[in-house]
Amino acid sequence: xxxxxxxxxxxxxxxxxxxxxxxxxxxxxxxxxxxxxxxxxxxxxxxxxxxxxxxxxxxxxxxxxxxxxxxxxxxxxxxxxxxxxxxxxxxxxxxxxxxxxxxxxxxxxxxxxxxxxxxxxxxxxxxxxxxxxxxxxxxxxxxxxxxxxxxxxxxxxxxxxxxxxxxxxxxxxxxxxxxxxxxxxxxxxxxxxxxxxxxxxxxxxxxxxxxxxxxxxxxxxxxxxxxxxxxxxxxxxxxxxxxxxxxxxxxxxxxxxxxxxxxxxxxxxxxxxxxxxxxxxxxxxxxxxxxxxxxxxxxxxxxxxxxxxxxxxxxxxxxxxxxxxxxxxxx
Length: 331
Known about the structure:
The chain is an alpha/beta fold. It contains ten helices and eight strands.
């Protein structure tokens, strides 16, 4: 296990405590409300069956842990066969300990890349991701720290280059999400935590990585359907995702002369620890039910989009794109 610095670890722990505090403030201000439900049946369109609603009622403390999520998110994509699309490349994935980040790390490794993952303080999840990457026959570097800290981002990228000798792919994926019923209930602390993680973190990590990227390299940002359509109770989160979409397009224009592509994936609802850590236990049961698929995506259903955008053999003429992976027309 590698920590960027003792200072970085302490900062990560402090940030996790701040996230828990925001969560406590939101939860204490809410009155119990019955969870909405629909009769929509889940659609199964993949090679194997994915969990459908109702999901088990459950709630997690921030930042959430995949190890305790039920059912466990599907990230191994057993029917996905690698073909060397990322052979001998090096990828850095923030928020790589769980959810979409873990699934992306595994498929990148299956395509031949060594992977470094950045995570806040979910050590058990990070270790499971490391084992999964190594099971694909590639190396995995784990780095604990807070992406809202610019110095940590510089140190993390430097560690990756020192370990592997180069860097080809940056995936900005770390995020903070906590709902707020009204604008008046959205505190400065809450707003600050969301913006610092979701926007500052992307800027800091991109700025740290770009000097090491060159022709054929890429940056992939994780956007969201909320960045297109908004969300009534995710005012701050939706705003940051819209900003990420604009940042993606702008940075693509900025870096095109260097031969660096910049794109984003905009998922719909995905079964990750982010959501049980943002909802009451009863509300989790119907998570993703309003989607055209009638269920949330599993991380392994989203991860191939990142492979496609990262691979020069697939996406050499694609930059500035926001690729929707939303389960069908929404909004």
